[in-house]
Amino acid sequence: MDTMTRIVDDRVFLLGLDQHYRGGMKLFEARVLFNCAKAVAGRLGVGEANVPLEGYYAEAEIPELPKYFRLMRALQDVTEARGAATQSMPELKRILEITGSAMYGRAQYERNGERMLLPTGRDAFSEALRGLLPADCNVPALTGRARDAALEHDDISLVGLAARAGDPVVLAALRESVVLYAEKILLLSGGLKYRYEWRVDPELARSANRFIEIYNRLVAGPNAALPAGARAGTSFEWCASQPIPQAEARHAPHFYGCAEDNEILGRCVHIATRHDTRENYHWAVRGASGGRGLEVDDFWSGELWTTARYRSEKRPGGTLRRGGGGIGNLEIV
């Protein structure tokens, strides 16, 4: 029997971790957090925000996700004072347990000089943007600053783990996975045996295990406790109600398999806005010229670009016309 070696390096591991996270979060958001957001919004008389759907929330096969995204965007604009009537609600406590967790960085309640009802997560990427001028925004600089920030603040968020690896493609892809919470194939014939090589940086694995512990406690556990009917159907990934295994060599096949399922080409995430011109800074994953792997396309636009729009209008292998530059202040989003 022929043997094929499958290498699980930092990139493969992180893409596998991301794919498992996305599958579980979709189920948790659709079946648990959506009901919590509806209850809190109903108490406050808040409706869905009229905003573009970002990230996986545009996936129409799970109808609760777009509604949840827009409800959460509306609730993120509610001040703590206005939301005082919800402080004792268990639904709010459930939302805060997730949004305030280390899965998304350091919880930030202060925005625009007011204390808000819900926090956003200050991860290594948003930390890297703080104090930068738009003209200084580029892929190498932000990747380096994000890595430094992740190490300085011991950031074990999904984005923080990507930042530690210093891989801009993974950084862009994983930031798109947490866009709601962040501070704004080869077909083989049969008869093959696989041998996996674990080449994940030990310090990255140790940090990832802390993220995994939080995810399994806050998301995987409640997902597994859902009635079978709530988990049924083909809309949710197979891993949605399963815990993420520890980042260890013996689990290399799991992360490799998840990484193979993770479609990151064309993911686009809006990460900052210029204070003066209101132009928006984005990172997107596209095919590198000459078909040599993947690269990050960073660009400015007067409009907000989403993954669905980027994949549809620009194509992952295409080129975006660049704009922006100049002098101004960045508003972290």
* Sheet having the most strands: 4 strands, antiparallel
Strand content: 15-25%
Which class of secondary structure composition applies to the elements? alpha+beta
Q: Please tally the helical runs, counting DSSP H or I stretches of 4 or more residues.
A: 11
Q: Show unreliable segments.
A: 185-190, 318-333
What percent of residues adopt helix (DSSP H or I)?
A: 40-55%
Report the end-to-end length measured between terminal Cα atoms: 53 Å
Shape: globular
Q: Mean pLDDT, rounded to whole units?
A: 88
In order across it, which strands form the biggest sheet?
7-6-5-8
The tally of strands reads 8
Order of helical and strand elements: EHHHEEHHHHEHHHEEEHE
Radius of gyration computed on alpha carbons: 20 Å
Number of domains: 1
What is the strand and helix layout of this fold?
Layout: E1 2-9, H1 10-44, H2 64-75, H3 90-99, E2 106-111, E3 114-122, H4 124-129, H5 139-152, H6 158-165, H7 168-177, E4 192-199, H8 202-225, H9 228-231, H10 252-261, E5 268-274, E6 280-287, E7 294-301, H11 307-314, E8 330-332
